[in-house]
Amino acid sequence: MGTGIYQICFWLKDPGADRIPEAEQKKIEQAISRAGGAIISSRPLGKRPMAYPIKKQTTGFWGEVVFSLTPGKLKQVEKLLLYEDQILRKTIFTVLPEKRKKAVRPRKPAPVFETAPTDSAKEIKEPVSDKVLETKLKEILEDES
């Protein structure tokens, strides 16, 4: 069984005092290394407001780490990170190879249909006097009765 490429996304507690919790990100990377994985890339932590409070925190630090690991060792990484108090949330995703991703097809623009102007459209555009309207209305009312 070969190695797979995974991405872990996580929220870390905001320690306050304009401090970035880089040590906590290092703990995540060390847990991956202890399980036999190799770090491919990691995104610098960024402070963001949360959509809803998690453990009474309204802001936190969002981070992502991409790594390679044998699939059987994922549980070991999760177990090593289970009791870390500074991690509010974490999720591990499988990164699919490019050939397995579906290519996004460009949408065709909707067809544009042009209509030829009709005679009735021309009649509407011409101004009509009040006298002509009154006579036409009388004709219509007389036809109905």
Distance between the termini: 89 Å
Helix content: 25-40%
Query: What is the rounded Rg?
Result: 33 Å
Largest sheet: 4 strands, antiparallel
Number of strands: 4
- Backbone structural class: alpha+beta
Output the strand order for the largest sheet.
2-3-1-4
Strand content bin: 25-35%
Overall body shape: elongated
**What is the count of DSSP helices, taking H or I runs of 4+ residues?**
4
Provide the succession of SSEs: EHEEHEHH
Low-confidence sequence ranges: none
**Arithmetic mean of pLDDT:** 82
Q: What's the layout of helices and strands?
A:
Elements: E1 4-13, H1 22-34, E2 38-54, E3 57-69, H2 74-81, E4 87-94, H3 119-125, H4 130-144
Antiparallel strand pairs: 1-3, 1-4, 2-3
Helix pairs in contact: 1-2
